Amino acid sequence: MAAAAAVTATGMSAVLGGDPDNIVARAEKHGLTPANMNGAGQIVVAGTMEQLAAFAADPPEGARVRALEVAGAFHTSHMAPAVGVLGGYARSISTHDPRLRLISNADGQVIHDGREVLKRLVTQVSNPVRWDLCMQTMGELGVTAVIEIPPAGTLTGLIKRALPGVETLALKSPDDLDAAWAMIAEHTSASSIGSQPTWRLLIAPAKGTFAQVLTTPVGDSLPVGAIVGTIDTLRDSTPVIAPHGGVVVEWLVHDGDPVSPGQPIVRLHPESQESMA
């Protein structure tokens, strides 16, 4: 991103107050991108320094424009060169599906697929942040408390204005940890999942590329001795065998993913074979 920012002199400005539609229209008139739709009366626009200067000289009605000390126009097309680089790195990363609800700041949607999460992390570098939609989703989900991790303060301030009644905590130092744990205890309930694992993992026996043979859906059973796939290299192919069988809880690696020795591939619930006996 630093290399992308060095191509052209770019920056960002916060726009406080005013009508959001008018701000976006005025920004686009000057060739700027509404890079952060933060809600609660705040939008961040981004583009070249010349475009930002023209926008500041022609501000939207009822709005204040404040230049931000940043290295470039992040979350805009100016960061496109970084997307290709990050995309190359992303191809070597294996993912698994989130266990908790993960809200994407691309559109405020809850994402359940690990590969989609990774894809969005890459493309978000050159696309606007929709924190306003994230807060809207939090409200729809009935969120009652939010803890912001360091560097903290900005997002909790926005939440206080957009979601009154939601308790917030900006975690700024180790001194805040006790308050964070107290908030978690107050606003959460005990998980139905026990602290002792009730599953087994099939792991990669070697380094290589995972070629998936079985696509057994989550909740279905694998028989004892099933070959779920192979680990392929230029010289040989090693099968990945489920010695005990079990019910598929989660696929952690997918067809074509690179794997390392000992890397988990699929999580199985061992009780399936007992119930089948």
From TrEMBL:
Any one of the GO CC terms: cytosol
UniProt EC number: 2.3.1.39
Protein's UniProt name: [acyl-carrier-protein] S-malonyltransferase
Pathway: Lipid metabolism
Keyword tRNA processing: no
Residues covered by the Malonyl-CoA:ACP transacylase (MAT) domain: 1-187
Gene Ontology MF terms in the entry: [acyl-carrier-protein] S-malonyltransferase activity
Alphabetical UniProt keywords: Acyltransferase, Fatty acid biosynthesis, Fatty acid metabolism, Lipid biosynthesis, Lipid metabolism, Transferase
Record's catalysed reaction(s): holo-[ACP] + malonyl-CoA = malonyl-[ACP] + CoA
A GO biological-process term: fatty acid biosynthetic process
Main EC class the enzyme belongs to: transferase
